[in-house]
Amino acid sequence: MNAVSFDRMSTPPSGLIANRPRRLTWARLVSNSTALLLALFFSLPMLWLILASVDHSATNQLKLPELTAEHYWVAVQADNLAALANSLLLSTVATVVGTTAAFVAAYVFSKHNIPFKNPLLLTILFLSGVPISILIVPVYKMFTILGWLSIVPTGILLGVTAIPFQIYQLKNFIDAIPPELEEAAALEQATTLQILYRVILPLTKPGLASSAIFGFVNAWGNFLMPVVLINSLADQPAPVHLFGFMGSNSIDYGAIAAYSLIYSLPVIVLFLGMSHQFKAGFSLGGAVK
User: How many CB atoms are located within 10 Å of the residue 40 CB?
Assistant: First the structure.
């Protein structure tokens, strides 16, 4: 078969004007300037973290460092690493609980006819905007009565707080799966659980990844719930230990910066490892292409 080649027209036909995008427009200038300002706004604190972590006399100001590694030595002490391990356990429990429950609920809302579906979805949307901190007092009393002031129940509670947003996130993704796939599986005598596990789950992996990342980050950065609901000081997660570097008379800025960088590494690794799934999870209708 002969290949057919097309020559690009160097000039438009007579009477027509070439449709070429303008290189510089006001809209493009404003959007690029705004993006540059936002990048600068967020890059300055990161630059301070990096410089202060290796500065012998670190302060709250941005300046050239007097190089030292002593702050990292303080940050990797046994109790600080144990706090990081507590954060990993807390976030893993929250991620598993929240993502699993949200996946099942999103499937029901997306593919089944249930009574009062729209009012329930509106209620879930409302709950996703309610800060859990306003419930901290009754939740603390309930945990005290039940003897749940420990790390695993707190992780489960943090997972529950992320469920409303995760349901919406996963429902939009499951909506894009063609119903013909479920109908074909039903004709093969597949049960609901088999359809959920063998048809819906594989096609929803990008959405599950983005939902899991959201649940993990939601629990990873939480300070108030662990400090109130975890009784043992040895079980406190990293954000609470980070607060411990701030004394009543002095603040160890160098240790704060070094520990903050170490504390952010798991989230950075998680984002880099699941970046493709994370992007696909936020593109609505991208489950089946």
Answer: 10
